[in-house]
Structure formats: structure tokens, C-alpha cells
Design goal:
The chain is of the alpha+beta class. The protein has 3 helices and 21 strands. The strands form 6 sheets. Strands 6-10-9-8-7 form a 5-stranded mixed beta sheet, with no helix packed on it. Strands 11-12-13-14 form a 4-stranded antiparallel beta sheet, with no helix packed on it.
Length: 316
């Protein structure tokens, strides 16, 4: 797993190695961790060091009292007394982990095998398990040692679906990508609707999906046709890719094996091409033009110009 700093050139650092069979990655910003799914298992990678509580790093009385109160423990006394009480509680919790078989390197969620995951809220994820063809909602809690997942059964897989590839939430609907195509499940009624079927012209072989825009659109990587497409109310539009195998950029970009996809700010699309080992950015040209126009106005406002060239007064 790598962390890419979006500068030019991009700065890449390795967060965790050895994830050879990783299929899905999910970043939980509120908890400062990334969840990685591989072969029915999940791995936790700390990005911001928020999982493990270290009493010695809690310097104020309030931070110690908050940590104790969140565990239902007495939180009166001096700072050394509070720190000692918290340390003793965490030591006992660590022993309980070892006795029950819990780990700090994965989400402990009652032996549910995860084949795909997606974020539902800051404290909840959806989990798909191919071994039982079921979907679950898992509420996440940090206890100071690891992450505990409270599992609740949500729904069965759509008919004839055997393998789940990806999921996302869009307009209070769980959208899923499986070996049969793309379907959606209403989060309230749990009604299932097939949106697109694989091996059809609009959708040859979909793998990854992501919410796009604010009208319930879904962007997906069609590995079969080598296109990036957007689905809206059943209509499908190609937004990138010529369909020819390749690794070119620009308005006539080509892909070899587009698989992973995610969306930033509802408009910037990142695509991973597995065959050529590349991550590509798809963005609206209009946004880039607007950015350059604003940058030009900013330059004029601060009188940025060539040496010995006359300039005129400008405002924003």
C-alpha cells in the first residue's frame, strides 16, 4: 500500500508491503486508518496513529480523563493516578485480546470473511462475504488496542451473483459490482434492482465502481471494453478511453486493463491500470481552464510579469 502526495512530480511512499493479493482498499479518515481486503481477510494499516492509545503521550489531565470516561472508568485523581489507571486498563484489554484471539492488525468482526468493503458512514462499513453470499453492516469502534466491528446482517446477494467485486454508497443506496454486473440495494427497504448486466454493449466486464456527481451517477471501469463510463438512470456514457489497448494520455487516452477507480470531490477520477502498472487522473477540461483563468487573474492582480515589460493595474 502506497501513499501518494499529489504534487508534480508525485511523491510516493510505501505504507505497507507484502499485500500481494489485495483487492479493495478503504480509507477511514475519522479513524486515521486504511482497511485492505485480500483473500477474505482484512488488514488494518495505521496512517495517522489513532488506533493504539499510549498513556505516556497524553499530557493533559483532560485527555486522560476523556480516555478513561470513554471506557466507563473513574476519571478523578491526579495526572499520575489517571495515567496509571488507564495503563492498567489497556494492559488488561491486551490480555483479553490474546486470550480471545483478537488482533490489532485487522478489524475484529465475528469471523465474517470480507471479500469487498465500502464506507457507509464515519463509523460504519458495508462488508460483502462471498462464502455465504451475504452483505453485512459493521459498526466500528476503537478500544485503544484495535478495532472492534459489531456485525449486523443486511441483505443477500442479487440472484445468480457469486462474486462481489466492489461497492459504494450513492444517494442512500448501496451500489454493488459483481460477476453479473451492477445492481443497487435501497438502504431502507432493501429492495434490489439490476442496473447493468455484464457481457452487454453498455457493460462488458465491470469491476470497480464509485459515486460520481450529486445526482446518483456511478462511474465504473469497464475492463472488457477498456473504457471508463458513467451510468445515470440507466443511460451509459463513455467519458475516457478509445477502447484500443494501450497506455496513452490526453483526450484520446487508452487503457490496457482498467480495474481500480475512485473519485475525489465528486469530479476528479483516479483509475488504476493493472497491466501497465499506472494510476491515471481523469478530470474535466473545463475545470482546468477555469483554474488557469483564475491563476492568470491572480498573477495580474499581483503584477506578476516579465522583467522590463510594462503591465497594467488589475484587480480580482
Amino acid at each position: 500500500m502506497c501513499l501518494a502526495d499529489l504534487h508534480n512530480p508525485v511523491r510516493v511512499s510505501v505504507m505497507k508491503s507484502g499485500l500481494r493479493d489485495a483487492k479493495i482498499m478503504l480509507y477511514l479518515k475519522s479513524k486515521g486508518v486504511a482497511l485492505v481486503v485480500e483473500k477474505g481477510k482484512n488488514a488494518v494499516v495505521e496512517v495517522e496513529r489513532k488506533i493504539t492509545v499510549t498513556p505516556s503521550t497524553l499530557k493533559t489531565k483532560k485527555s486522560l480523563q476523556d480516555a478513561l470516561a470513554s471506557r466507563g472508568l473513574p476519571h478523578d485523581g491526579t495526572i499520575p493516578e489517571l495515567r496509571e489507571r488507564l495503563q492498567a486498563s489497556l494492559a488488561q484489554l491486551k490480555k483479553d485480546y490474546e486470550k480471545s484471539g483478537k488482533v490489532s492488525t485487522a478489524v475484529n468482526m465475528d469471523k465474517v470473511a470480507a471479500d469487498s468493503i465500502c464506507l457507509v458512514s464515519d463509523h460504519m462499513i458495508a462488508v460483502a462475504s462471498n462464502s455465504v453470499s451475504r452483505l453485512f453492516l459493521v459498526e466500528l469502534t476503537l478500544d485503544g488496542i484495535g478495532i472492534i466491528g459489531a456485525v449486523k446482517d443486511f441483505s443477500h446477494y442479487p440472484n445468480d451473483c457469486k462474486s462481489m467485486y466492489a461497492m459504494c454508497i450513492s444517494n442512500q443506496t448501496l451500489v454493488i459490482s459483481c460477476d453479473k454486473g451492477i445492481a443497487k440495494i435501497d438502504m431502507t427497504t432493501r429492495e434490489q434492482t439490476v442496473l447493468l448486466s455484464n457481457s452487454t454493449p453498455p457493460c462488458k466486464d465491470v469491476r470497480s465502481i464509485a459515486p460520481f456527481g450529486d445526482q446518483g451517477e456511478i462511474v465504473f471501469a469497464d475492463m472488457g471494453s477498456r473504457h471508463i463510463k458513467v451510468s445515470s438512470n440507466g443511460d451509459v456514457e463513455i467519458i475516457a478511453g478509445t477502447g484500443e489497448e494501450g497506455n496513452s494520455d490526453g483526450t484520446r487516452a487508452s487503457f490496457s486493463q482498467p480495474m481500480g477507480i475512485c473519485v475525489e470531490n465528486g469530479k476528479n477520477i483516479f483509475v488504476t491500470d493493472a497491466q501497465v502498472g499506472a494510476v491515471k487522473l481523469i478530470t474535466d477540461v473545463g475545470c482546468a481552464v477555469k483554474f488557469l483563468e483564475n491563476l492568470g487573474q491572480l498573477s495580474h492582480a499581483f503584477s506578476v510579469h516579465h522583467k522590463h515589460k510594462r503591465t497594467h493595474t488589475s484587480t480580482l
